[in-house]
Amino acid sequence: MLHLSCVSGCKSSMTTCFRALCCKGPPPARPEYDLVCIGLTGSGKTSLLSKLCSESPDSVVSTTGFSIKAVPFQNAILNVKELGGADNIRKYWSRYYQGSQGVIFVLDSASSEDDLETARNELHSALQHPQLCTLPFLILANHQDKPAARSVQEVKKYFELEPLARGKRWILQPCSLDDTDALKDSFSQLINLLEEKDHEAVRM
Q1: Could you tell me the pTM of the whole model?
Q2: Which InterPro entries match (predicted)?
Q3: Residues of the chain with pLDDT under 70
Q4: HEC profile for the chain?
Q5: For the segment 146-184, what is each residue's pLDDT rounded down to a tens digit?
Q6: In what order do the strands lie in the sheet with 137-142?
């Protein structure tokens, strides 16, 4: 009887394992979010996105019109539409805003005063645009590895983010190509904001 009981127990255990292996479906699909990435030429948009996609820096070419990259993360896939930042392109940015679920704005924290003023004006326009004003914003103060880089606090004050973006979902983070972990953490924070917005939409 002891022997039969042992065999029965083994068979039962094998059946349980078999069912667990066979009935286990594929892992749940990661949510995908459509984002728009804007910033002046030279701010480093293309290089940062290429870094996140593990692309060779030798293959990076500045975006003149627009490009789309699928940036994979453990808990989401970000479909990022990057728009060129040249003077003759920026006036068409708003044509590509439709369908966006979040915004990435990249600025060169070591740029000239004139370029920084232009970047501030463009960010203000984006934050107030009807198609973007309710979306989460990730604002990246890039080129922090350069000697002339302004700190996050300096950028926040100069861009007047506290009064302008009050009540909006936004994150301002320092970044550079040298610190991939910090860059990924910034995007993880953006994904959290996107998920929160999703959950709010479901509750409504």
Answers
A1: 0.84
A2: ARL15, P-loop_NTPase, Small_GTPase_ARF/SAR
A3: 1-27, 199-204
A4: CHHHHHHHHHHHHHHHHHHHHHHCCCCCCCCEEEEEEECCCCCCHHHHHHHHCCCCHHHCCCCCCEEEEEEEECCEEEEEEEECCCHHHHCCHHHHCCCCCEEEEEEECCCCHHHHHHHHHHHHHHHHCCCCCCCCEEEEEECCCCCCCCCHHHHHHHCCHHHHCCCCCEEEEECCCCCHHHHHHHHHHHHHHHHHHHHHHHHC
A5: 999 999 999 999 999 988 777 789 999 999 999 999 999
A6: 66-73, 76-83, 32-38, 102-108, 137-142, 170-174
Question: What residue has token string 């506290």?
Answer: 162
